[in-house]
Amino acid sequence: MAFIQGYEFDAMSRRPLYGDVTQRLVDLCACAPGSVVADVGCGSGLATELLLERFPQLGSVVGIDPSDHELALAKERLGHHPRARFVTGRAQDVGAVVGPVDAVVLSNVMHQIPRAERHSVLRGCHDLLAPGGRLALNTLFYEGAVLPESRRFYAAWLHATRTWLRGRGGDLVLEREAPVALETLTPGDHEALMAEAGFADVRSEEDVYAWTLEDWQALCGYSIFVEGATGLTDVDLGSRALTAALHTVFRDLGLSSVPRRWLFVHGTRQR
Ligand SMILES: C[S@@+](CC[C@H](N)C(=O)[O-])C[C@H]1O[C@@H](n2cnc3c(N)ncnc32)[C@H](O)[C@@H]1O
């Protein structure tokens, strides 16, 4: 998994669609005045920003991310904020990089954690929380995210990407380990993982969001997505291939948007 400068998640995180999704996640946190929140896998800081807006009496938000490129963007946006700070670190080591907190947000991070490590990440977040503290996560890569009627779109997009690359003497890299994002779990699996990690009152909810061409295009500028979708280490080439193919498929299938489900899961550390 490569974090490449110039190919951060930022363009996607600034899409109105993504803003709506992240606002919904933040609303699930219900932070009391003075609370400290960890935004684990904060990227360029959208959830941190929305948390500070939604709960103006928050004590502070600590954004944690392993990518210094993502953190540079977060600091550019929010580095001046007296109640936001950003540290380099992984969700797997969260207890070593941040002290006790009242809430944890994992905004579209779980599908970037290898499946075998998801339990210990949730356990680490649980142990970080004060009794009664909440964890809220969401993900768009899980079992059930793709609606049956959209399968045709994904197949056509992959095919058109391959055709574009082959026309330039290249190809998709098919012989490889499956990307971590495709180590998918069902909503029920997510709930069970949360319960096994010690959380109570675990709930999950799903909703369908309509992705426009501009939304997908923004995702095509993200290195982790490009690498996962194409297998290419040349992210610039992969990004151009996916973007060109996207335009072809939206045009050929006469699409204005593609629906996809998003999963939200939340729970509380027992008192
Ligand atoms: C899809 S982006 C979401 C970024 C941000 N949370 C948002 O919603 O805008 C996933 C983020 O997870 C981060 N990430 C990847 N592996 C991680 C890990 N092991 N621990 C914590 N964060 C990780 C990536 O660097 C990236 O910033």
TrEMBL record:
Residues 37-133 form the Methyltransferase domain. InterPro entries: Methyltransf_25, SAM-dependent_MTases_sf. Gene3D superfamilies: Vaccinia Virus protein VP39. Keywords: Methyltransferase, Transferase. This is Methyltransferase domain-containing protein. It comes from Streptomyces crystallinus.
